[in-house]
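User: two proteins, same treatment. go.

Assistant:
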Amino acid sequence: MLAALLAAGAAHGGEPGAATPQPGPPGPSAPLVMCYEDVEQRPWSSPDASGLNFELLRRVEKQLGERFVYAPKPWRRCIEELRLGTVDAVVAAADAKSRRSFAAYPLRPDGSADPARALYSDSVNVFLRAGGRGSWDGHTLVAPNQEVAVQSGYLISSVLRERGYRPRELVKSAEDALRLLQTGMFDVALLQGAEASRLAVSDPRFQGKVVQTGPPYWVLPLHLAFNRAAYRRNPQRAHAIWEAIAAARASADYRRLAAEAGVPEP
């Protein structure tokens, strides 16, 4: 009887001044559905869910007893589904004010996204049509008619627009963007990822017709970004995953794997 009365009192808030019960560690949860881009971004990701990002996330799954389900889609669609809450998270998203209303990132005390808990950092590089009228000296980007080819849905388009350029999001892959230079449709392309650099050097279609120039236009950390509603349902789960990402990135076996893929500092 006493136990029943105590239980009833606890259900109505308990004794004044009693300690508030603290939530324990999250219990078994449903798998998290994660969207990722369905084009090659080697060595980080490929459409078949291979690459360093997935090696890293597999280590996180093992450490935390998690299960992730991956959905490859065009990048613009991934961001839209993150906004709608159709997916729980997206793999390798840059932070931006325009995304903060629907996306949650690991944050530092000053409110900025924490690069230490990002999946990796990537570069947006400048590619020019050989013999064209574009140029980049590390400070000033010159593009005829201010037109710059970019990958569809990438944040660089917003950056360029704010700086007075006219980004043209006609293609989603680095390969197709380089074709736009090769055929003379554009003189300048700003492309994210090592895949564009690899193709420009090694693919006979682009050798002598497309050149990568100067330092990167932009370097940005890319995160596992959660849908904000999914984050609110279990913030401890999201933070545990972000912390595990940082730990896995620093591990000797992942660093060895990254070095074998040509990434000296993952």
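Protein 2:
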Amino acid sequence: MLFRDAATAFIRHCQSIRKLSPHTIRAYQLDLTRFSQFLGKRAAVTSCDKTVIQNYVRHLFDVHALKESSVKRHLATLRSLFRWLDEDGAEIEDPFRGARIRIRMPKRLPRIIARADLRRLLLHDRPNAFADLTAYVATELLFATGMRVSELASLLDSAVDVDEGTITIIGKGNRQRRVFVPDELKSLLHDYRAIRDRCASSADTYLINSRGAAASPQMIRRLVRIHGERSSVRDRVTPHMFRHSVATYLLEEGVDIRYVQRLLGHRSISTTEIYTHVADSALKVRITEKHPRRGIVG
């Protein structure tokens, strides 16, 4: 069996049987296409051994200059493919079985938006242009709910209950969660929906572009970046920074980490725990600044 044929069959399995999200399917397709190009179009699945995998890791680092997290994702996709082939009864040796491929992740703390910059981003006069209004609504929703940009782009209009102040999000692995929006955002969301409904649109998503089509993740990233620039925020603002920020600031305010886990849709609480390091950093600064020892000993 050619590797590219196995990859095509695996993608069909992920779509029809595992019911993975379109975002995950696209990521798998990109990862498998890159590996197929590395192997060669006519390469067989049986040509993949431990040496090939190790060479591929070096190729990803040296040729494509990928970060450690991206390389780990590529390998995770390949592991899933070979695990599926094994479970499907294919008599193929899994190149990952017994292979020691360890990629050390650098200790990077999540990038958050400073409180002063958040104030600039959130305290705004209501924009007139529809694109600017969409950027403002996206910014508010990202910070209020901590949702991923892919989740915001695919958020259905029917999933936003403004009166109840609830939003139903379909996250990774098609896992559903419900989040809540502050009362002070309800009028903004009502107004956006009213303007949105007057547009000639057939999209069923809550956010749309000026042509009436569903807002893409790329469009939301661009709108958020421009909104940050217009708000005089010095650092480049990305949608994921709002997710990092709301998690960090909630923990700083003493919210139970399990609630933050549910808000973000993390399957494992260990994923949420990375934000405790940022919160601890802020705690260290505050204690150092306010510690009574300075006043006692002068």
